[in-house]
Structure formats: structure tokens, C-alpha cells
Amino acid sequence: MRAEIISRETIKPSSPNSQRCYKLSLLDKMSFRIHVPIIFFYLSNDHNNYLIDFTYRSSLLKKSLSEALSRYYPLAGRIKDDGNIEFNDEGVHFSEARVDCDLEGFLERPELEALNLFVPGGNNQELNSALAVQITFFKCGGMAVGASMSHKVGDFSTLITFIKDWAAMTRHADKLKALATSHGVENPTRVQVAAALIYKCALSASRLTAGSDQKPSFLLQMVNLRKIVVPPLPEKSFGNMVWYFTVSADTKESKVEFHGLVGQLKEGIARFRVAHRRSTFTGDELSSQICEFMKEADIFHSPVATNHMVTYSCTSWCRFPLYQVDFGWGKPIWVSSSTRLWNTNILMDTRNGDGIEALVTLGEQDMNVFEQDEEFLQFASLNPSALDTN
Predict the structure, then answer these.
(1) CA dist., res. 223 & res. 247, Å (int)
(2) What average pLDDT does this structure show over 7-30?
(3) Is 349 a catalytic residue?
(4) What are 128's strand-pairing partners?
(5) Which residue in 102, 151, 155, 165 is the catalytic one?
(6) Counts for the chain of helices (H) and strands (E), in that order
(7) In the chain, N or C: fewer CB atoms in 10 Å?
(8) What are all long-range contacts of 251-260, with beta carbons under 8 Å and residues at least 24 apart?
């Protein structure tokens, strides 16, 4: 069996650490300067889309590893000769490899020597590195996740605690993404999957309360124009620079598919960017663009439309630095909003940035059904404590 390294990079913590040195305990310093490796093997969930799955899993693991390192910051440092750990923003070595066999074939009679192929660096690990990670892909779509931690940093309990937390961040942050990806939607964003889930469950609630009187519906997804037009507008541009594209669901179908809505949102923003990327907010082009916007608005806000269809809207405030607003007495412990508009949802990052909070408004009857939707409750917590948003 042969292994081929296909990429190497360094993963840094998502949040900077102000501490420059971590002092090891006496027991740490007495430990051998060796690495403790562990390898986890996983069968493929989808043999047909494993190439897509590789790219998705790799991206997901790197993102969640970066977030985990911000909590386990000593693992991103380098062990110095004095026995302490220095933080110089070097991060963790992360490599990707592939092997020329199927996972099940390897597991039938695993060879001890071959296990070194799944450990980052094999037997030649950098002794000053606190942690290294390697993910290896098999021909069948299976994969191995190998991690190797310096014994100077901690024992096996320390290693497995870190890996469990890393895995939890990966799993919880992207269960919805995985659901969409498993149906062929490549690399959806957090906002797209959250917006799709809320819209789908709102439609299900409306169907139950309206019965045979259910009207056609549309979702208006708001878009910040500042980064879409060419050339991009400054982030501090003053005024309204937002418009929308639409997503629709066939309410006559027995079931609205979640992955179908995610795909529409992904395709919708792509089309919107192509249509408006050449827009310049000056002179005649500005007037022409506003006329186009007004024509679109008439479709959804005319009296006829208001009486014959239901409109939902979604706006994302994710990636805005809401939790960086410091008036001099510290950063906010929670950020939220309020709205009197029905059928609206506002998406915001949680305090630590690894989740999304959604402020959702619906009519009373629809909301009563929405809050009991089992699919929705698989991925969301209703009215969680603001102190638990991390």
C-alpha cells in the first residue's frame, strides 16, 4: 500500500491569543519528548459523490480545527528547549493524503507498519510541534483522521478531550450542510442552509394551518450590494445598498425538499452576482438599475400579489462585527434585534461565531406549528438562554 501526500498547510487559531508563552508543569517537563498518535477510520456514506465529499470534509475539518485551536491554544504553539510553549502564530501542521486501496480491504488484515502512513509525519515528526493532523482518503470514499500530540503538552486524556471537542464543533456546526451536500449541493454556506430550513418549516406550518387555502409563496433573500458591484463599494458606504433575489416553492407538491431550497439559494446568489456585478452606482446606469429594481418590487408588493401569495423574507447579519462593538466597558454579552414584520427571519452569528441565531416571526397559528416541527428541532434550540450562546 502506498500513500501520496496531496497537500500540506498550517492551520492557525480562528481567534488570536494575546499570551506569548505557556509554561509547562513539572510533570509535563518530565514527560518523554515523543508524540502520541491516534487514528480514526471512517467508512464512506456516499460512494457516488465521494470526490465532492472529500473536498467538503477537508474544508469542514480545517475550519473547525481552527476554531478548536482558539480554545486549546497551547496546541498551536512550538515547544522550546526550556520546556515551555511559545506562541508565534505558526499553527498546526495539516496534511492531506490518499492511498491506493479500499478501507474495508485494509481493515480485513491491517498491517502495523502501514499505520504509519496515516500518522502526520510518520516516524519523522517535528519534536517541537505540539500537534499535527493528517486526513487520508481511500479509493472507496472512506477516510482516516490521524492526530499526533506531543507528550510534553499532555497525556492521552488531554488528546482525546481535544479531539472530542473538535469533532463536536465539526458535527454541530454543519449537520445541515451535510444534509444538503449529501443530495449533491456543493459547499452551501451556513446562511443558505439556515435560511432554507426556516423557509421549509414555515411552509410546512402554513400548509397545516391554511389547508386547501394555501397560497403560493416566495422567499426574498436580501443581498448586500457593496461587495457585488464593480468596483466594490467601501464597507462604510452610507445609505441603502441592499436588494434581494427570490426563491419559490411549489406548494402543490406533497413535500418541499430542503436540499432543493438550498440549491435555489445557492443558484440565486450566483445569478444575482452575474446580473449586478457590472452595476455602477453613478449616472445613467444608476437610474437604469433602480428602474429594474422597481419592476421587481412591483411584482411582490402589488395589491394583487399581496392577496394571492405569501411572501417571506430573510436577511443575514452574519459576518458583521456585532460582537466587536465596545464603548469602553467591554464587548456585548449578547446582540439581538426586534421586528414587527411578519414572515421575517434575521440571521446573526452567535457570540463565538460557530453558530447562527435566527430571529423568526410568523403569524400566531403558524408559529405554534413551527415551534413543534420535528425536523426543525433536530437542528435548532427554541429560545435558548442568551448566556449559553458562547
Answers:
(1) 13
(2) 80
(3) no
(4) none
(5) 151
(6) 11, 13
(7) C
(8) 251/203, 251/207, 251/214, 251/215, 251/216, 251/217, 256/200, 256/203, 256/204, 257/183, 258/179, 258/180, 258/196, 258/197, 258/200, 258/375, 259/179, 259/180, 259/182, 259/183, 259/184, 259/185
pLDDT reported for residue 125:
54
Is position 326 annotated as part of the catalytic site?
Answer: yes
**Contact in structure between 300 and 220 (CB atoms under 8 Å):** yes
pTM above threshold 0.85: no
Q: Which grid coordinates are listed for 326?
A: 465596545
- Amino acid, single-letter form, for residue 244: Y
Q: Is the dihedral of CA 75, 79, 85, 87 positive or negative?
A: negative
DSSP string, 17-38: ----EEPPPHHHHHS-S-EEEE
Segment 330-355, tens digit of pLDDT: 788 888 887 778 899 999 988 877 78
**H/E stretch holding 168:** helix 156-173
Alpha-carbon distance of 251 to 369, in angstroms, equals 17
Q: Residue 368 pLDDT more than 90?
A: yes
For residue 99, the model assigns a pLDDT of 92
Rounded Cα–Cα distance for residues 63 and 9 (Å):
13
Could you read off the pLDDT of 119-157 as tens digits, one per residue? 887 544 566 788 999 999 998 888 899 999 888 888 888
pLDDT for 122 equals 54
